[in-house]
Amino acid sequence: MATPHIESKLEDISDVVLMPGDPLRAQYIAENFLEDVKLVNKVRNMYGYTGTYKGKKVTVFASGMGIPSIGIYSYELYKFYNVKKIIRIGTSGSFHKDVKILDVVLSSGSYCKSYFDKLLDNHDIDYIESSKELNQDICDVAKSCNIPIKVGKTITSDVFDLYVDSKEEFRANFPGDDFLAVEMEAFGLFYVAHKLGREASCLMTVVDSYYDNRSLSSEERETSLNQMILLALEAAIKEN
Hints:
Layout: E1 16-19, H1 23-33, E2 35-41, E3 48-53, E4 56-61, H2 67-81, E5 85-94, E6 104-111, H3 116-121, E7 127-129, H4 132-144, E8 150-156, H5 167-171, E9 181-183, H6 186-196, E10 199-209, H7 218-236
Parallel strand pairs: 1-4, 1-5, 5-10, 6-8, 8-9
Antiparallel strand pairs: 2-3, 3-4, 6-7, 6-10
Helix pairs in contact: 2-6, 4-7
């Protein structure tokens, strides 16, 4: 079985997928956290790997950057490969004074000013929730593993927020000041999951902040991302 963007066989893909944006991060996760790993997709160098974590089958599949890209890959995985759950694992910025660099954020829902929903099936919404059940699994694992996370609403943006002319004007596009983080993919993932009756969540490690000009070392970034990856893997194999 193949789609325009995925060359995998049906049996190559697990029913639960971890989805980083960066193909090289997918490779890193596969090589450092999974056993019996197989490269199952390399079309457009959007790497997908399937292996086992604690004896259970897990797929790690890159999404690329932005709603259009994650929209394609999540749709094809859900629709044609019978994937039930996707956990996006990525990085984000923070516009909230209580969300610090290196915090891990779990999105309860994403606000976005995009035409993705309008163009896909003529809907017009600005906010969509993630999967409550999958989020609860992640929260349960975080508690049992003593991994601190912050849960709340997030923003999905069509532009990289560090490049905007005015951060104040950027923030004014979004209602209220209770959004914990900003990234570029979650709204598209959540929307496709709702459309197809599947589950989706998004975990983010905060790597820059409106309130903190600090630059992370490569060691700090890797350590924090590893904690998020482990949290996602443990949630992926959690049995209800």
